[in-house]
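#structure-requests
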Amino acid sequence: MLKVVVACGSGIATSETVVGSLRTFLEEHSVSGVEVETTDFKQLAGVLANYDVYVWLAKPTPEIQQICDEEGIPDVNGVDILTGSKGDKTFLDFVNALMSLKSAS
C-alpha cells in the first residue's frame, strides 16, 4: 500500500479538499493500493518518513525538503490539484510520483 500525505497549515480545510480530489481521481481511474491522508504542517516533520509521497500546499521548508530528499519521498505541488489550474495535466505530477515509486519497487 502506498501512503500519500497532504499537509497544510491546520490539516483541515485546504488539505481535506485536496485529499478528496486525490481520492476521487484515484477512484475514477480504478487505482487501488493508495492511501491518502492529511496532517497539519506542525506535525509533518515527525510523520513524513512514514509516507511515500508528500503533496504540499505551501512550499516545503528546508527541513521538510531534506526529509524528502533523504527518504526518497517525491513532493508534489498540491496547489495545482486544489485549483485545477493545469487542466488535464493537473494530476500529472501526482501520477508521475506514484509511477516512479511503482517502478522502483
